[in-house]
Specification:
The chain is built from one helix and 22 strands. By secondary structure, the protein is mainly β.
């Protein structure tokens, strides 16, 4: 029986803002360096270095080389507003081609670009009007050419649309990918044309819309089942998607039995039991259900989620890391923003919870 994973969306009003008092980007002064790397900005390619600016206590960044790019994904959404102001101070030689790229939804599609002029530590401002609904914007700064490019005080904030963005041509996002925010009242925003209601603890009513790959009226192609599609970005949610049957290991999240190699989806996890043993309980909190979880009774080859499930105290398998909402992660950069922190612009924690695809040694 399908579990009640998905619930009805309560409309566009459910979406909450995701800025820090209107500030969209972390670390606007480039103050938070982790060794020789920026903490808040990710280096896509090329090299960077920390540099002094006009203010000794306000360091900047130099883009070093002929092909350099840095990026930051911001959780700002249409609940925050559609008008944004992007600012920075630039020291750019005429021989450098520096661009600000705006990737709404953070899906890799750049919808808008601005070329920075040659300047000597000049403040620059760009107003951006985003056509909603949207959640997440990836800001990318690229540099090509041999000239010098140095930047400081990069920031972005939400503004009043009627006063600051009046008359601007709106930036229209590309059709949204699976898991991206959508509004069921505004059709044709998803690439799949399916916008469904999903649980969302960050929204006012605990639900919002996400693009899905299948539903009751949109079946999957032959050889696929309509199951749980995990979010592929911290600004996306889990939704329905077409999944290869029996492709998920013990401990992975699921919505229907056929997704799991074990043929058993219990409490939203690929499991080894439901009522097939006297004690069938989750191996870790909200994890896979196994027989005699945590009792050191599992024989060699029995399913397990932690070492405590096995008589040998050894559960062989792949380490399972998850964000606070249960999505799989490799690092905190895969996790939703604002969870477990008072800073809405910080990613939540990525924590080891157990073993995926485990069996007792």
């Amino acid at each position: 029986m399908r579990l009640p994973f998905f619930i009805v969306m309560l409309g566009a009003a459910t979406q909450l803002g995701n800025t820090d008092c209107g500030q969209v980007l972390r670390d606007s002064g480039f103050d938070l360096w982790c060794g020789d790397a920026l903490c808040a900005w990710k280096v896509e390619r090329g090299d960077i270095q920390k540099i002094p600016t006009w203010n000794q206590g306000d360091p900047g960044v130099e883009l070093v080389g002929n092909d350099v790019a840095i990026e930051q994904l911001a959780p700002v959404d249409s609940g925050d507003g559609s008008c944004l102001e992007f600012t920075l101070v630039a020291n750019v030689d005429p021989g450098a081609d520096v661009e600000l790229n705006v990737d709404v939804l953070g899906d890799g599609t750049v919808e808008h670009s601005e070329r920075l002029p040659a300047a000597s530590w000049k403040p620059l401002t760009y107003d951006l009007l985003i056509q909603g609904p949207y959640r997440g914007i990836r800001f990318e700064i690229t540099k090509t050419g041999a000239g010098k490019a140095q930047l400081a005080n990069i920031g972005a904030r939400t503004l009043n649309e009627s006063g600051n963005c009046a008359g601007l041509t709106p930036i229209i996002p590309a059709p949204a990918p699976l898991g991206a925010y959508c509004d069921t009242l505004q059709p044709n925003t998803c690439a799949s044309d399916i916008c469904e209601g999903v649980p969302d603890p960050d929204s006012f009513f605990g639900a919002s819309g996400a693009c899905a790959g299948c539903d009751a009226t949109h079946a999957c192609d032959a050889g696929k089942v309509c199951g749980l599609h995990e979010p592929t970005s911290p600004v996306r949610e889990a939704s329905h998607g077409c999944v290869t049957p029996a492709s998920k290991d013990l401990g992975e999240r699921c919505d229907v039995q056929d997704e799991c190699a074990s043929g058993q989806c219990t409490l939203g996890r690929c499991s080894s039991c439901s009522t097939s043993c006297t004690t069938c309980t989750p191996s870790w909190t909200n994890g896979p259900s196994v027989c005699n979880a945590g009792r050191h009774l599992g024989a060699s080859g029995d399913a397990c989620g932690t070492d405590d499930d096995c008589a040998s105290a050894i559960c062989d398998g792949m380490e399972r890391k998850e964000c606070d909402d249960g999505r799989p992660c490799a690092t905190a950069l895969d996790c939703e923003f604002g969870t477990g922190s008072n800073d809405p612009l910080m990613n939540g924690a990525c924590t080891t919870v157990g073993i995926q695809g485990g069996s007792c040694r």
